[in-house]
Design a protein that fits this description.
mainly beta, Porin, eight-stranded antiparallel beta barrel, 9 strands
């Protein structure tokens, strides 16, 4: 009986929540979490780490400037491990950790519509920490910084007044030590992600 009441209350809550109006100012601060597949552009990456792609969890925050413009801050992380093999014997391990922050502007218009699209652009800042006996850059492994730009597009479905599901595609480009960040020499890449956003206030 108790389980039945819980189910009925949950269904009632879901019905009432889905009937809520999306207006009323609940889009001034939006925070979110996401995960996706990232593919790094750097040509020499697969020489050591075998595959260029892997999972990349992240988080984001949007602050309304004036409709339909938002200040956007995003964070992502991409890690990869490899084994250094000499004469069919594992002699050491290699680890790559890449974190990047995007700061820019997003264009999106929230309102009564459940489905909205967005696009954004801005600056991207990368921090890389590579440990092991070798480096994808042909020098000693270690910590490196890079900077460049990002572009993103996406779709959101606002299933509740305070929450939405989103899918996005992001392109980042950044070069190490002031070098060009074009395809092949960029530590940025392509990210396809799925996420959940919360409309805080």
């Amino acid at each position: 009986m108790r389980a039945k009441n819980i189910v009925l209350l949950s269904l009632l809550w879901a019905a009432l929540a889905s009937a809520q109006s999306f207006t009323g100012g609940h889009d001034r601060l939006i925070i979110g979490g996401n995960t996706g597949i990232f593919r790094i552009s750097y040509d020499g990456f697969s020489r050591i780490y075998y595959k260029r792609s892997g999972m990349a969890p992240g988080a984001s925050a949007l602050i309304k400037i004036r409709p339909p413009y938002y200040a956007a801050v995003k964070y992502h992380q991409f890690e990869k491990d490899a084994k250094i093999i000499v004469n069919n014997i594992v002699v050491d391990t290699q680890h790559w950790k890449e974190q990047w922050y995007n700061v820019g502007v997003r264009y999106v218009s929230y309102g009564e519509r459940r489905m909205v699209s967005h696009f954004g652009f801005g600056f991207a800042f990368f921090k890389i920490n590579e440990t092991g006996p070798v480096s994808v850059f042909g020098r000693q492994p270690g910590k490196r910084d890079a900077s460049g730009f990002f572009l993103d597009i996406g779709l959101e479905y606002r299933f509740l007044k305070y929450a939405s599901l989103g899918v996005g595609f992001e392109i980042t480009s950044a070069g190490i030590g002031g070098t060009s960040g074009f395809e092949g020499s960029s530590v940025g890449g392509y990210l396809f992600s799925l996420g959940l956003n919360w409309f805080v206030f």
